[in-house]
Amino acid sequence: MTALIIRDFGFRFRNLHPALGALLFIEPVIVIVMIAALRIFLFGKEPPFGSSVLLFMGTGVFPFYIFRRCARGVRGQKSRAAEYYFVRPFDFLLSRFFIQSIQNFILMVLFFSGLYIYGIREAAPWAPEMCLISLFAVSCLAFGLALINSSIRSYFPSWGKIYAFLSRPMMMFSGAFKTVDLTPEPLRTIYSWNPLSHVIELFRVGFYPNYPHASFDAVYLTKWCTGIIFVGILFYNNKSKD
Description:
By secondary structure, this protein is mainly α. The chain has 11 helices and no strands. 37% of the residues are buried.
């Protein structure tokens, strides 16, 4: 699996210009800076919560991007699996999931470390265990959806592009740019239906000790994590032959 991760990571950027590869790597940071700049331009430097607009947006965008990137899945890889011994198509899905997770985790650590060095002390989480639980939950959601997406792509290879297009607007309804508890109804209820909003709330609790999170529901999030993995396994076991 380690060799597969290393080879797939190199294969992913082999045909890209180094500048383009760097842009793809730091895409979440570009999105954070653009959204923060737009908010400062429209509403001033006062963040929705906390002392830094960049930190607030970062704590919302990074969990969403981890979910979005890790949930893309892969196409059928039976032909590539024949190149290796003891490698199954599922191993390619798992290696891609690990690659995306490692890539986004490294970028997230660099981003928050940079904010801390810059002088934003809130960038160092006061409850890192909350952040880790949140990242574990979003990984479960992403892995379950990756199984589903891989199953769909076995029938429709172009589904990956459709998912990439449809998944972007989800960020607007995940609470990435707002504090869900301070959002008026009915938007607050709509946000609460999205399991990603609970992931983001839990992640922000790890950074802000007094972050309002009355709408957070651990049972609801656990049901989603368990259910989507179960459905993903059913889909993947009944997918088209690679």
